[in-house]
Amino acid sequence: MEIEEDELPYTVFQRYDNGTYAMRFTLGGHGQIRIGLRTRDLAKAHRLAERKYMEATIRAEQGLVLGVASFDKLAQDYIKSLEAKAKDNPQKLKGYRYAAGVVNRYLVPYFGRKNISAILYKDLVGYKEWRKTYWTTGDGKDQKWLRFERGHKNLKRKAPTTEATEATLKRETSIVRGVFMQGVEKGFLKASDIPAFPTTKSTDTKRPAFTKEQFDHLVQVATQRMLETENPKQLYERTVLLSFIVFAANTGMRTMEMRNLDWRHIENFHMMMDKPPTDLGDIGIWAFGKGLPPQKLIPRNAAVGALERLFLATTKYFGEKPKPTDPVFVNFKGERVASFKSSLKALLTAAGLEKAGDGSNFTAYCFRHSYATWALQRDPPVDVYTLSNNMRTSVEMIQKWYGKVRPEDQKRVLRGMDEKPEA
Q: How far separated are the first and last CA of the chain, in Å rounded?
């Protein structure tokens, strides 16, 4: 027996604005629901309406919110939640800004107003391919600058010109997952409905590090560049840079931790103020950054020499000893150094060390990699638990990123060059 239209639990009607069909119905506890059917074919509209009504009934029985939960709306809700957390915890501000940039530059333009429950695995695969080539052959290939706002200032930086790395894609996947979890929290889908995310390729995860010979050469060039100038400003800047690379390679600190470092964070700072800098004693350094609780690390002796050089240079250039609340690394204006990127690049170029053996660029972060690699190559090697604790990371991360000692790293041992000659 055919059901008359007025006996159906829903009503199909034609929209006056664009001529397509839509449906409306009411379910207890949810009020009136309207869903667009996006077709001008009445027979097709009725078939779609029947299916949509059944789906809505099932969702209502499961306690899920009815209606369309668009990706862009949930993405903005997710960003607002991160912003609120960042206001309570300033250490999360950087993560919020990064996520907001990914959402507004990539995710919303790609997924737009698509229903969160309609996004499938194949859509995520498509996004990954689109995102990977965004700056090379994709939508961003003609964009020269990235513009953003910081503290009511309009700033810009050069747009990327390379494909997104697997590490970048993996990091951004966590943001996509965050948007889906926002939908779960609001009741638009169940956690089990979240599609699987495309896995990244398995690659050699050993990070680029300087060999000890390369680092010694870099220090030698940095020292020579420091000594060959008579310009006070340039001399000071090159002294700070030399101190930075030696300090970084002998503490294993992250770049953000060094950027956050004040003189008061160095235990026995009063000894620097009251005694000759050469009598520093046994110092410890409190590291701040990456949303982790402050933690004391023990530097290698060479880092103490770098601090001594920096302390003397700062005192001479500014005419007074740095105060406990002053940053350790300051520029010629007395401001906290935000980045050594430009000056380090010039030094690496002068030393002929722009790239590592695998073709990747040497950067400031490579000093942390070098610290870990050298620690694991010592005889005997530093215990991995001690190393991970001093670097404020997990044993798993040490094993993943630094634990793969390649044959070329131990070529002297493999060739028998470290063996004692037979009697």
A: 104
- The sheet with strand 21-27 has its strands ordered as 10-14, 21-27, 31-36
Secondary structure E strands in 253-408: 285-289, 292-297
Domains of the chain (ranges, CATH numbers): 5-61 (no CATH), 71-193 (no CATH), 212-410 (1.10.443.10)
320 CB-near residues (< 8 Å, 6+ apart): none
Whole-Å CA distances, 20 to 41, 45, 46, 122, 328: 8, 9, 12, 28, 66
With a CB cutoff of 8 Å and minimum separation 6, the contacts of 50 are none
- For the chain, helix (H) and strand (E) counts, in that order, are 16, 7
Residue type (1 letter), 33: I
Question: What local confidence, expressed as pLDDT, does residue 400 receive?
Answer: 74
DSSP-derived secondary structure for 258-294: HHT-BGGGBTTHHHHHHS-TT---S--EEEEETTEEE
Separation CA 240–CA 337 (nearest Å): 10
The reported pLDDT for the residue numbered 370 is: 93
Over residues 141-172, the pLDDT tens digits come to: 999 888 877 767 788 888 888 899 888 898 89
Please write the tens of the pLDDT for every residue from 1-57. Answer: 334 456 789 999 998 888 899 888 887 766 677 788 889 999 999 999 999 888 888
**pLDDT of res. 390:** 93
Cβ burial 289-308 (10 Å sphere, 16+ → b, else e): beeeeeeebebbeebbbbbb
Spatial contact of 292 and 304, defined as CB atoms under 8 Å apart: no
Q: Cα separation of 266 and 263, whole Å?
A: 6
- Cβ neighbours of residue 130 under 8 Å, at least 6 residues apart? 110, 138, 139
Q: Which helix (H) or strand (E) holds 412?
A: helix 411-414
Task: Tell me the Ramachandran region of residue 252: left when phi exceeds 0, alpha when psi lies from -120 to 50, beta otherwise.
Answer: left
pTM comes to 0.55
